[in-house]
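Review box. Two proteins, two foldings.
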Amino acid sequence: MQKIVILLIAMVLTIPTYAQNKKKENKEEWKKELQDFKYKYLAQEVELSDEQMTNFFELYAKLESERKQALKDCKAITKAVKEEGEHSEAEYERAVEAVLNLPIITGQIEKKYYEQFKTFLSYKQLYLLKTAERKFNKKLMELQKKDKKHK
């Protein structure tokens, strides 16, 4: 457990510097490296066996892809009313509905994939997965906050 904490602290300290040095054209490469790190972190936190890892990574990638698409769809709808100009009540209603439905949609996506995870992960591992995701995302938000303060 201490190794995980040390690894996470090292990541927290190096990612802002690393991210600042990356140019825009390397953004996709940086995202891939961050995703790889996240997967390794989750595998360690969830205590995946070698056998479980292959199934987990494949399924988790699909889960993340669907969650990102739901967020992208919501942002596309809300972006329209953020632009200057007059907007109809129907446009605002659509934006509000998109924002309100996003947690429901992502919850449904997670539920669908957690049903599949249950076929090869224990309930303890499912619990650890949710906990690890929250910890990882919290650390990323802290890094973003620190990065904005340094700029």
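Next protein.
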Amino acid sequence: MKALLDLNVWIDMAIRPVAQSDSIRVFELLRDLRHQICFPLCGYTTVYYLLRRDASAEMALTYMNSILDSGTTALAFDESDARTALRLPFSDQEDASVAATALNHEVDVIVTRDVKGFHRSPVRAASVEAMLRELAVQ
């Protein structure tokens, strides 16, 4: 399975690891079951900015490096993806950009804490909890 973790899941793992430990568990299960874990590069600066704002610049840089060094697949975002995002029926362009990245890179599922934000996504979206249940039966 090719799973794209939404930005809110990456942020949970960085700055809310205790409160949102299920985000870490889903990452670990995907990794242990040898599924492909993807990071949408359209959100690189957003994740960095939020971590820098809520933690520190040093922590943000360290975390961004750890994502890129973890074996996670970084999915590019180019003009084609931007045009796809603009055509999708989303009110939030950040979510549309994640969905367009998933679509254009043939991702199987977007794992998110905001399933409602992806209700019109062309790629299936699953909550972290739903993904944990799905992975538990594999």
